[in-house]
Amino acid sequence: MKICVIGLGYIGLPTACLLAVNGHQVIGVSRNSKIVDEINKGQTRIKENGIEKLLTSALQKGLTATTNATGADCFLLCISVDLDEKNKRCDYTNLIQAAESVASHLKPKNVVILESTVTPGTTKNILVPLLEKNGLKANKDFFVVYCPERAIPGNLIQELVNNNRIIGASSGQGKTLAKGIYSSFVKGQIVFTDETTAETVKLMENTYRDVNIALSNELANLCEKIGVDVWEAIKLANMHPRVDLHRPGPGVGGYCIQKDPWFLHQIDSAQAKLIETARSINDGRPSYVVEKLKGFVRPNSTISVFGVAFKGNVDDVRESPATEIIELLLLNGYKAKAYDPYVTDYKFELFSLEEATKDSDCILVVADHSEFKGLDPKGIVNMKSRKIFDTRNIIDEEVWLESGFDVKLLGAS
Ligand code: SAJ
Q: Which residue's alpha carbon is nearest to atom 32 within ligand 1?
């Protein structure tokens, strides 16, 4: 098939590559001409295991990147649908633009697949009318499908291939065409439903995680009050066969989990109080961390912020709790020096490990990078005072205590 993939970001690019190496003729489309040039040269800004190798093979097999959509058998929309921060609702700007660019190339028997996370009803009520503007009738002349991606940053390619996929469509032909496309690279199960159910399922998955994390964060606060180590308590509770508490921490970042619950909430805010509360608990974590830090290290001190990525082992800083933590530290009179072994481009200056700890009063661990697990505190000799506050329960407390560090653990002490 000739497939036009609109959007060459974290999901669009690896998906375009997987389709190309599995025999499709793929045109990747991005509005950003720099990204298009880089991709055509085999370069990518996305740091994921195996992505460069995959891109090289895809280019050899006929993937090409360009700035404009062209005619194709299938259009795959992998654009970001953002959250309108003010109203906490779906912002359709990117979707409208992408749909309009597809509409002008749409021909009978084409299939248009939306992968982006959206509020339920978007495929039927927003995408279809935009595509029908060219005169063809959806699910009669051409077919529309919603098939959410479910891959995790840090292990994208593996998960794009191995995870189960949900194909949501109202027409049998749409389902068959989409199955043909996905089964060329997906090894997981492919299941069918209608488009609005598929949109809802995707949001339910990420909302489940957000609410679960909020509960763990609340439990962490309560455990702190009674001197119980929440990490040990959660580990033991999760030994129950029907309990799966997530990890407490400094907040929920990234592009998905902190945004998606609002797309459900916008259906009826009065009926979505739990979602709203979870969002507020998780959004409040950076400020909670800074309040806790105040009782451990006084203002005017220098804090070495370890890990500015939104989670461990990724270079992605989108909506990272570390950014708000650094802003709050500065507002509260602290100096902050950030160190991250993965991130190279960040809002605040980044320091090497040694520069970040030089004359510092406390290390604040914010992202759970594996590098921090095995870090040898004996090698850190240039701090003004030996203190460490771990918000992820990632360091080996015993080792740091033995090395003369005063150790504080979020959710425990
Ligand atoms: N976090 C916690 N505690 C946890 C788990 C996560 O505080 O127990 C925090 C992380 O540190 C991070 C944020 O939540 O700041 C989100 O992390 P994540 O690993 O849950 O999610 P993402 O945003 O990296 O990717 C998710 C994936 N969801 C998972 O179920 C692991 C992926 O499957 C989705 O497809 C993706 O969002 C998406 O596209 O929506």
A: 152
